[in-house]
Amino acid sequence: MRFVVAKPLIVIIILCVFITPGCSFLGLPGTDDLDSLRMVSATQVFDINGQLISKLFEENRIVVSINNISPYVQQAIIANEDTRFYNHAGIDPIGIIRAVVVNIRTGSLAEGGSTLTQQLAKNMFLTQERTFTRKIKEAVLAVIIERKFSKQEILQAYLNQVYFGEGAYGVEAAAQVYFGKHSSELSLGESAMLAGLPRGPNIYSPYIDLKAALDRRNTVLSGMVKEGYITRDQVEVAVQEPIALAGKKKRAVQASYFLDYIANELVGKYGANRVYKGGLKVYTTLDIKTQEAAEAVLGQLQGAVVAIDPRNGYIKAMVGGKDYAESQLNRVVAEIRQPGSAFKPFVYAVGLNQGLAANSILVDEPINISGYSPENYDKKHQGPITIKKALRMSVNVASVKLGQQVGIDNVLSLAQNMGITTIIPQDNNLATSLGGLTNGVSLLELSTAYTAFANAGVVSRPVSILKVLDESGQIMEENNPSQYSVLLPEVAYILTDMLKAVIDNGTATPAAIGRPAAGKTGTTDNYETAWFIGYVPELLVGIYVGNDDRQPVGISGTQVSALWGTMMNKVTLGTSPTEFVVPPNVITGIPICANSGKRNEWGCPDIEYSAFVRGTEPQAINYRARSGQDRNLKDDENQVQDTQDAKPRWKFPIRLPGF
């Protein structure tokens, strides 16, 4: 292993450093002055129309001398990043071999083998690309740096250069961001916490996950004991130190939650240094007009809003809470909540897929299924109703009956195929028909799943970044829509037609905006969370309202639908209404009696206009003058002929995802 890993690398470095001065064939930069940190350029983020949204996290760095940095920080960094720092000449063959052995033993990349000097060379003078050539350059530069500068100068440059998260570059900026003090004033516990950040600033930040930050701090302290810098008694004192964070400063930036969302994605691909100071240009799917409307909609209510173009998955707006300065938790993706009745469309989609029609009848009545007795929100029952009426009025008993008939396992399978990842085996029960999931769903995943209803049965996965250019204008990445089919267009359209009725004369009438729109309300037990997921052909907007502490929010899905209507009126202002595309073999506008499922029934108190696959629509009833006795007899005959208590008339296959 010494021969395979270490020897060739050492030979190359010797040749570069001593035989070929400067190693010019590798194109190495100069390393004359570590104090002159290279000028950095902020990454620019643009919306879908090319409008600049923000410069992504302007670099925050305050350069200080090694004498103004707490010795604890210096010791903690060395003990945990490069224990042989004072003994090697830039690269550490022993450390490389040890890292390889550990990685083989653990089956992972648990150890990196890079010295502090190598890390400094990479971050100051090279890119983050993972290639053998870059690794050779890094090693050669490390040896050159070690020949030119003292260990203290190298350590000083490293501590001033390394990224600690939260936009803080260098230990002085980090000390101020996290603890509101100078780096010379840091205690042992604070120093250990900061020293644990460079390996994962987005993982170990105490602002993001305090428990993870404390666990990492304790690991750093153990490393310091192992290397003889501190004693066990000092560790005992350090772990008892109260954590007094300075608190995040307010950042008045538009689309802050969205910026964090894409920043996390970019950092995962290119590294924090490249993203935050590499002069990148990031072109996103965000639309400023839609974002402004979304940011205004919550008011003083806590919750989240996401807007997606169902035709391609482009995220047009993202609001992760009512106040970014108060809380940076992005509730669009991080909050998992019970969806309530907003989950019912999956049940009805399976029913349609199995051959039911919009006029199939379910009987709304008191039920008890093995001890499970769901109730309607108004504690009343309506008797026979169509499944379209059951959905538009969000009738719980009917949904449970339908779930039992179509099979909850089929409902869960469809929801998973449509992108819901939080479903577990324990959800295979009738409460799922009402959205009573064990874990719940995120707003982003639920909204993404609804894109299939709006987009002819095709799920459009979320896309936030269209392309990224480097500082030279070269394309680093381009992203196209990622889509797959889960339902036939006929099923998706008929369900959309049913969801249009939710807004036209169902539980979401406040969402009416004077143009074709569809959606579903959801209200969980005790008004803990209220939802509305609604869409027009070109835009889908999901909103939930709910307190972080899960205390009742005091409003229903119907009231959230009013928020949706307010937002959509702003977004669509000045645009022409568009219709949902009707599949060629679907017929629309058939008048149906919602209490019997029959067509054109005389004296029906509730007429709804439904869509059918052509040839499956009920035939018109030809009424003629007759006695009351004859009419009753004829009605009985039609009841037998035209209503079949939710029995299938055809069957469509559920399409599995295709990539």
Automatic annotation (TrEMBL):
Gene3D superfamilies: Biosynthetic peptidoglycan transglycosylase-like, DD-peptidase/beta-lactamase superfamily. Residues 627-637 have a biased composition (Basic and acidic residues). This is peptidoglycan glycosyltransferase. One of its GO terms (cellular component) is outer membrane-bounded periplasmic space. GO terms for biological process: cell wall organization; peptidoglycan biosynthetic process; proteolysis; regulation of cell shape. The keyword Signal does not apply. The keyword Secreted does not apply. Residues 303-538 form the Penicillin-binding protein transpeptidase domain. Keywords: Carboxypeptidase, Cell shape, Cell wall biogenesis/degradation, Glycosyltransferase, Hydrolase, Multifunctional enzyme, Peptidoglycan synthesis, Protease, Transferase. It catalyses: [GlcNAc-(1->4)-Mur2Ac(oyl-L-Ala-gamma-D-Glu-L-Lys-D-Ala-D-Ala)](n)-di-trans,octa-cis-undecaprenyl diphosphate + beta-D-GlcNAc-(1->4)-Mur2Ac(oyl-L-Ala-gamma-D-Glu-L-Lys-D-Ala-D-Ala)-di-trans,octa-cis-undecaprenyl diphosphate = [GlcNAc-(1->4)-Mur2Ac(oyl-L-Ala-gamma-D-Glu-L-Lys-D-Ala-D-Ala)](n+1)-di-trans,octa-cis-undecaprenyl diphosphate + di-trans,octa-cis-undecaprenyl diphosphate + H(+). Residues 626-647 are annotated as: Disordered. Pfam families: Transgly (PF00912), Transpeptidase (PF00905). GO terms for molecular function: carboxypeptidase activity; penicillin binding; peptidoglycan glycosyltransferase activity. It comes from bioreactor metagenome.
